[in-house]
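Q: Could you fold this chain for me?
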Amino acid sequence: MKSAAGAPPAPPEPTAPWRPHPLDVVAVVLAVAGAACALSGLLPRAETTATLHRILPLLLFLGTVIVLAELTAVAGVFDVLASRLAIASRGRWAALFLLCGGLATVTTLVLNLDTTAVLLTPVLLALARGLRVPAGPLAVTTVWLANTASLLLPVSNLTNLLAADRVGLTPLAYAERMALPQLAAVTVTMVLLWYGWWRRERPAGGRFVPPAPHVPADPVLHRIALAGCLLFVAGILAGVEIGLASSVALALVLLGFVVRSPTTLRAQLVPVRLLLFVVGLFLVVQTLGRHGLDDLVADLVGADGGAAGALRAGGTGALLANAVNNLPAYLAGEAVLPSADHTRLLALLIGTNVGPLAAPWASLATLLWFERCRAAGVAVPVRRFVLTSTLLAVVGTLAAVGALLLVS
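A: Sure. Below is the predicted structure, expressed as structure tokens.
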């Protein structure tokens, strides 16, 4: 068969073979390994049940909040916020840096680090697109401050809730104890952000042309999605369990999309990979704890007190967080430290909060951030990210633990 012009039709373009993303492979391997641990008896049934029961609320939160973020992005909420942030900076790159850093810090302190990773990352990525500047500095701002600004309040991080309960501190007493370490961690983060990322990417003259205010394609859907986000934030501030708050907010947004844009709703919105990763991770780490990990952690933490003991606990927390994940790392360290040793327990907490930056799996916030960047098609320079993140993990942990020793 020839075309109307007499030339043979062009052959179809070859399609690239499908290849799984490396994180897909990691998630499946972890899920299979976790299931094998549970089914083989390496992890007793009672402990398997207890572990699954403990992480179910976490899985509910992760699944619902990611879908909420996806739909909110589609509704244009993040684009509107990004344009307003750029307008408020009046075209000054340094002012934009402070606004973005301040927003990420406040969001993490008042809400929690996962909220910053999920909801704020798309805001800054949309801002980078609108300004036509490299997305790296803005993207790294969210993931760094999501972790390092999560020390001050018990609600800022799930590990904080565990630590505050273990040391028996009220929220106010806990905040008083962690205020100086938090200030030290954020200060180090902002300095490294500026010199490692923002200063290198600043436009000529340190100025840019602010974009016009973004107008969403569907104003009604935009208002519904915005209401869902505000409802989620209000629920967190009111002390509602995070999984319930995200589920109610998602239900509202889903209803809006069912009415206004039903074709947007698809099964791929559900973060199956992330959920498999979390389940497998917890089961594997729990099993390893029974078969030598707890002893290894005890050796790493040591029995020394004072400044050396606190620094060792903080370093162990940061090291284990990047090796496995910050939540299991904190639990493993907590299990081998006396409950009366408040300084070393809080130093361990600092390491697991400030340190988990170099590896994608180091904290749920870091993993969620990678998911947001991947969904937006943003590739952060891996080598520079790992090097600067490792530097921040080391210097930030040392600075925060040093500040903790000053108030202990």
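A (continued): The longest helix spans residues 171-201.
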